[in-house]
Amino acid sequence: MSEALTIQHESNGSGGRYFAGLGDGFEAEMTYRIRADGARVIDHTGVPRPFEGKGYALQLVKRAIADARRDDFKIVPLCPYVEAQFRRHSEWEDLRAR
What we know:
Elements: E1 8-11, E2 15-23, E3 26-34, E4 40-46, H1 56-71, E5 75-77, H2 80-88
Parallel strand pairs: 4-5
Antiparallel strand pairs: 1-2, 2-3, 3-4
């Protein structure tokens, strides 16, 4: 894994995103929308090709997991990458929204 990212979070009330600058104008991003029950539906995770395979997407997911534990919300892993990470990390299963 490459260096730890400085991850920022923006929310607009109905959704938001986690993102981090990667240099040279590149950005890793994970977006979500908020369901009526407060669960975050993570619908997209993206890392530019030159930065793929360095663990940046996983860092975004782990930040959302930490926020879910701290702020008491559930996650719907709609994005295939996030779903795959939920399958790999059984310790996150309590955060999966039904």
